[in-house]
Amino acid sequence: MGIFIFDPLTGEPTISATNRAKRHNQATGVENPPCYFCKGNEALTTQTLYQDADDWNVRVFQNKYPLMPDHEVIVHSPQHDKDMEDFSHRQNVKIVRAYLNRVSCFGMQDKEVIIFNNKGGKAGASIVHPHSQIVAAKGFPGILEKEKESALHYFNEKGSCYWCDEWREAVATKSRVVYESSHFVLFCPKASRWSYEVVLVPKNHKPNFGFIDDMEINDLAKVLPGALLTYKNCFKNPDRNFWIHTVRYEPYHWHIGFIPHIRVFGALELGAGIWVSDKATPEDAGVELAKFYPA
């Protein structure tokens, strides 16, 4: 079971989760076990925690090889080879509602959550069948904790929300924006860590993903897969990740981050923690990605 280990000099967290070495790895193409996530194989997984219907379209269960005690799998559909960018809007609404159910469930336990999605071996996926994962804890060290602290510092200094100011600046300057909908802005951050990194920010300021309403759910179920399809169109179906950052309290602003794996990390990133974005500036990336966002 994973636990946090902290570097005594830098304070950087690591999770020790050697149990995960036992999991099957379909992404390598070497192993070909039965797919645990396909319909009919429910007995191969742990007990169902959530599903949208008896004849399920979205299913959630505890991860068999958890990073930490609360680590769940959200299977996107019974279809083994199709994902959010291929689904109907109705199916994507079901996925978003499954995310919301789990965020709300852990929120009632006073726990923070991170939802993340890996597609492809370079992105860390070991199971091919499309799915997301959610981990929950009383708090998360690392980037999420730094974002919380910085959001509070920014608010105390400027009296406004960092992410609200960011999306408004991107829209006002017409730079870095990939797509704007009624409720969301998809754009490249000014300090992108990876080339073509994008972030999806709700226009309506809310700290917690669990607070979104039905109109935002319906819109998110269009824009989130639209972002994934943009990468697919631009980079010919690359391995990629996305994650949802959400906390329970102000002055945070929940958002979704996306990266395509179009380069590998070098020693400067790994040894110094300094990111190198060498494929395109955020401004150029925004212009290029906007061309590939589905009409």
From TrEMBL:
This is Uncharacterized protein. Its cofactor is Zn(2+). InterPro entries: ADP-glucose_phosphorylase (IPR053177), GalP_UDPtransf1 (IPR001937), GalP_Utransf_C (IPR005850), GalP_Utransf_N (IPR005849), HIT-like_sf (IPR036265). The keyword Aminoacyl-tRNA synthetase does not apply. One of its GO terms (biological process) is galactose metabolic process. GO terms for molecular function: UDP-glucose:hexose-1-phosphate uridylyltransferase activity; zinc ion binding. It comes from the Bacteria. Residues 150-236 form the Galactose-1-phosphate uridyl transferase C-terminal domain. Residues 71-139 form the Galactose-1-phosphate uridyl transferase N-terminal domain. The active site is at 131 (tele-ump-histidine intermediate). Keywords: Carbohydrate metabolism, Metal-binding, Nucleotidyltransferase, Transferase, Zinc. Belongs to the galactose-1-phosphate uridylyltransferase type 1 family. The keyword Nuclease does not apply. Zn(2+) binds at residues 35, 38, 80, 129. Binds 1 zinc ion per subunit.
